[in-house]
Amino acid sequence: MKTRQMNRDWISTAATLSSALPYLQRYTGAIVVIKLGGHAMGSDDAMDSFARDIVLMQQVGVNPVIVHGGGPMINALLKKLDIKSEFVNGKRVTDTATVEVVEMVLSGLVNKRIVQAINRQGGRAVGISGKDANLMVCDQTDPSLGFVGTPAEMDVKLLHTLFERDMIPVIAPLGAGRDGETFNVNGDTAAGAIAGALKADRLLLLTDVSGVKNAEGAVVTELKTEQIRQMTRDGVIAGGMIPKTETALDAIEGGVRAAVILDGRAPNACLLELFTEHGAGSIIRPD
């Protein structure tokens, strides 16, 4: 006969699960697009933790879509291959040789690493890029930057097919040109465009900061779109946060119910955001 006393940690875990019920019900059947980058892609442990959270999300009825970056890996391979990069106004020029490396890294090394991590946790992930099934047809952003694209036409039927088969799309941010070109697309921009085309319930932008901060440096947990615009005009939102908030605003304008900028360094950040009362970052909603 085995005997044991109830442990306070067990009771706390049960209470946490119980309190998550209304959020689990709220997100059943919801589409959640997650932009993965930064710390969450850095170590194997961080990747495994992220993958486990994604599989759990799907297990409770969420349809997750992963869009990833890979800048540091691209830079490393360009350096290894001794391919020199030119810059215009601080932005990399993506020439023919560079875009080939970009595609190798994003669609190959990075994409399949994420797919394998999710599959190891019991999920069924499928790696694709924006070129597959014309998911993301792009126009050239600026001729001086080479093969850098801006999403112009979206076709998300493939993603709905994957949802119906209980598969998790993992998407590399590459787009197809109208004349057969391959375009490199900013990862945040791609995630926002995909979320908008899906009319997703949430767009989660994982970053290496804790969220949008006010003038005093405190994280603002809830914001409306006009507040974001005003904070940008006032210079409170600046630097690298501007592209994140612009992506969030574009996604909301495209039909996403809300976008969240959250700290991907925090353990279980996606679960905290979706399934707890306090969330894990700055949520931006329409006015």
From TrEMBL:
The protein's enzyme class: transferase
Which domain of life, per UniProt?
Answer: Bacteria
**Residue limits of the Aspartate/glutamate/uridylate kinase domain?**
31-262
User: Known Pfam families for this protein?
Assistant: AA_kinase
Q: Give an example GO molecular function.
A: acetylglutamate kinase activity
Q: Is Cell inner membrane one of the keywords UniProt gives this record? A: no
Q: What NCBIfam families does this protein map onto?
A: argB (TIGR00761)
**Family as reported in the entry's similarity comment:** Belongs to the acetylglutamate kinase family. ArgB subfamily.
The gene it comes from is argB
Q: Does the keyword Amino-acid biosynthesis apply?
A: yes
| Reactions catalysed according to its record | N-acetyl-L-glutamate + ATP = N-acetyl-L-glutamyl 5-phosphate + ADP
Localisation per UniProt entry? Cytoplasm
**According to its UniProt entry, what is the function of this protein?**
Catalyzes the ATP-dependent phosphorylation of N-acetyl-L-glutamate.
As recorded in UniProt, its EC number(s) are: 2.7.2.8
Q: Which organism is it from?
A: Sedimentitalea todarodis
Name of the protein this chain belongs to: Acetylglutamate kinase
Give the pathway listed in the UniProt entry for this protein. Answer: Amino-acid biosynthesis; L-arginine biosynthesis; N(2)-acetyl-L-ornithine from L-glutamate: step 2/4
